[in-house]
Amino acid sequence: MADGAYIAPRMPNMGETVLGSGFFLGPGGKGSNQAVACAKTGVETSFISRLGKDDFANLAFGVWKDAGVIPLVVQDSQSYTGSAFIFIQEGTGQNAVLVSPGAASLISADDMDDQTSAITNAKVFVSNFEVPMHATQRALTLARQSRVTTLLNPAPAVQFPEGLLALCDYVTPNESEAEALTGLRVTSVPQATLAAQKLVEMGAGAALITLGAQGVVYCDRGKTLFVPAIAASKVQDTTGAGDAFNGGFASALARGLGDHDALIFGSATAGISVTRMGTAASMPSLAEIEAHVPSFKVVTL
Questions:
Q1: What is the mean pLDDT of the chain?
Q2: In what order do the strands lie in the sheet containing 95-102?
Q3: What is the pTM of this model?
Q4: To 10 degrees, the CA torsion angle through 43, 100, 165, 264?
Q5: For a 10 Å CB count at each end of the chain, is N or C smaller?
Q6: d(C-alpha 217, C-alpha 240), whole Å
Q7: Across residues 179-184, what is the average pLDDT?
Q8: Domain ranges of the chain
Q9: Measured between alpha carbons, how far is residue 272 from residues 189, 266, 277, 286, 288 in Å?
Q10: pLDDT at res. 93
Q11: Active-site residue 243, yes or no?
Q12: Before 284, cis peptide (omega within 30)?
């Protein structure tokens, strides 16, 4: 997927033109961003997807090569590589996103079966809702059957089949996604704690709710933790911060770190990413993350 990011003071109204102050074209897509974030820490990372046969596909392959991501990709000449329009608010770095998945919307359960070996031999399997639900469910089932650690980033928030969360060791929504999934309002740490507890009651092994500038709340059946967010320097662009967190968290789990240390590692990854423009381009190296890790503290709630 490719991201076209536009920087402006505000979003235009229908029929209105607003003069922007910047533009950035780069690779994107939640799964791709998370794979890049993970691979840049030195963890062997594969990415399963479908692309078109176009310039955006070439852009993706180039970025994956630079980051060290192994592409397990089918190219479809009858469709197009997914793309996203991203509005970034000048001064705050806050964003709004419109996604058109293209070929990614054609990913099937059969595609997951074709990649059974890659899925079942992984240490950690990560998925999201930017691909069709039947493909996500099939991949999580294959991973769970082989006792692979499973992480689901339920974004964008959509209806999902009963029993899906039971396939997930970790589920990682942001505030709005957590609210959509649980029906509980999520704007604060206490509210996020209640929503995380409900997601665990719904079947997830553990729930992590990312709260942007506030931090991240973690809940499993034995403990509830909170990691405040810390940016390495001035915030430039929050687009992809959740992807950075997920990629960093997955990398830490693959390295054998426990939940406590993985939370810090993921938070540090996100904390660096928001100080740079772009999504995949903003993902930090292992050395940068390790230098930023001491800034973070975990609070037991």
A1: 95
A2: 22-27, 2-8, 81-89, 95-102
A3: 0.91
A4: 40
A5: C
A6: 18
A7: 97
A8: 30-53+68-77+106-300
A9: 22, 10, 11, 11, 8
A10: 86
A11: yes
A12: no
> What CATH number has the domain spanning 30-53+68-77+106-300?
3.40.1190.20
- Which candidate, 282, 256, 294, 273, places its Cα nearest to that of 67? 282
Residue 252 vs residues 41, 68, 122, 259, 287: alpha-carbon distances, Å: 9, 17, 14, 9, 14
Q: What is the pLDDT of residues 105-131, one digit of tens each?
A: 999 999 999 999 999 999 999 999 989
Choice among 114, 243, 259, 261 that is catalytic: 243
DSSP state of 276: S
Classify residue 157 by burial, with Cβ atoms within 10 Å: 0-12, 13-18, 19+.
middle
Distance (Å, whole) CA 81 – CA 29? 10
pLDDT category of residue 279 using cuts at 50, 70 and 90: confident
Query: Is residue 278 over pLDDT 90?
Result: no
Task: Say if residue 21 is exposed, middle or buried (CB neighbours under 10 Å; 0-12, 13-18, 19+).
Answer: exposed
195 to 144, 161, 191, 263: CA distances (angstroms): 24, 19, 6, 18
Quick: pLDDT tens for 237-252. 888 999 999 999 999 9
Nearest to 257 by CA among 269, 248, 268: 248
d(CA 113, CA 280): 28
**pLDDT value at 10 more than 90:** yes
- H-helix or E-strand spanning residue 34: helix 30-39
